[in-house]
Specification:
With 362 residues, the protein is mainly alpha-helical. The chain has 13 helices and no strands.
Length: 362
């Protein structure tokens, strides 16, 4: 698939990065959603295993589940040093650190549930540890974590395919296969590492963003795989994720980001009222993009379409539905992977206004 040429003129006036509104900083989480968040966090805390990890059903995806769950507690404002969930965060970080391999991989391809998809676990673990690193002030632990993160970034770089993306396993192990969802995971992970002060070669991120642009089909959406030929048009989940990654890489003013937003605005139902495939994954990233866009970003992006999506509009619809769909025990059920994943992703969405982590800030 070739990069789309749609919306070529949309950003003529936005050669510089999109100027977000002056008030588009951290907004306090509205009171009506705080009980929902607190119940969700308490439920998620109860799912943590004594050794510090989380997992999906049958012991699946422990690195991924630990990474996304740890992020949910960091977004509450707790850190590895202080806060209500500091002990949960420290135990999760220690569990991942203990599984750092000499080659830089976070995890082990022989762990049940990770063998055929270890780049997911590596990516979410790298994202979480990068966000933990800034708050680790104990000398020996900080130096050890810096070394682990440096080698983890190097592992991601070596695992990148010739087209600039990533696959479920490394390029060497996977015959240079790549696909969109793992690529998204790696982009955010290495960007978080860079935010934390870890050395990340610029070409890793540049190649990855080019991969996403090259994966844009004629309908404005991001296809499943460059290596695999796409298999149809753009996919809403991957397109929403591409926007979030584009923003985190500073791609506010590109024609591709404009096209991705237009595609998502047409393809993704407002809120989560109507369930659809991969909806928790879709809104996990779409909410991040909408939060950065704020309430004035759409009008700046599309001056002739002032009635487009805003963060306030998106938040009202999506958050209200999350409150309605939350279980009495505080968790959420359904989704493609199970209650731990869907609860952690929903808590990420609900806590964006806390602006506790640089990777999710405006």
């Amino acid at each position: 698939m070739k990069s789309s040429a749609i919306f070529m003129g949309v950003f003529v006036a936005l050669a510089a990065p999109l100027a977000l509104p002056a008030g588009a900083r951290a907004d306090e989480l509205p009171k009506e959603y705080r009980d929902c968040v607190n119940k969700g966090l308490d439920w998620l805390a109860k799912q943590q295993h004594p050794d510090g990890h989380w997992e999906a059903g049958g012991g699946q995806y422990p690195l991924t589940m630990t990474g996304v769950s740890g992020m949910a507690f960091l977004m509450e404002g707790s850190t590895i040093r202080e806060g209500k969930y500091s002990e949960r965060i420290r135990k999760a970080a220690d569990w991942i650190v203990a599984r750092a391999m000499p080659n830089g991989m976070l995890g082990n391809p022989n762990i049940p549930g990770e063998a055929g998809r270890y780049m997911y676990g590596h990516g979410f673990a790298l994202l979480f540890l990068s966000c933990v690193y800034g708050e680790e002030d104990e000398g020996d632990r900080r130096r050890k974590l810096e070394d682990i993160l440096t080698r983890a970034v190097q592992f991601s770089g070596k695992a990148q395919t010739t087209r600039g993306g990533w696959g479920y396993i490394s390029a060497a192990d996977g015959s240079d296969f790549d696909e969109g969802s793992v690529t998204i995971t790696q982009v955010q992970a290495v960007r978080a590492a860079r935010n934390a002060g870890i050395s990340v070669p610029k070409e890793i991120i540049d190649k990855a963003i080019k991969y996403l642009k090259d994966s844009t089909s004629s309908d404005g959406g991001v296809i499943y795989s460059l290596a695999g030929g796409g298999g149809g048009g753009g996919r809403p989940a991957l397109t929403a994720a591409a926007i979030a990654c584009g923003f985190s890489a500073g791609e506010y003013g590109s024609k591709e980001v404009a096209g991705w937003f237009k595609f998502c605005n047409q393809q993704i139902p407002l809120g989560l009222g109507g369930r659809f495939g991969h909806d928790e994954y879709t809104h996990y990233y779409y909410a991040q993009a909408m939060y950065v866009l704020g309430d004035d970003g759409w009008g700046k992006m599309f001056p002739k379409d002032r009635d487009g999506m805003t963060w306030t509009k998106y938040r009202k619809s999506t958050f209200d539905n999350l409150v309605r769909s939350q279980g009495a025990d505080g968790g959420w059920t359904g989704g493609m992977i199970g209650p731990v994943f869907i609860t952690a992703t929903h808590l990420t969405i609900l806590q964006l206004d806390n602006a506790a982590l640089p990777i999710y800030q405006r």
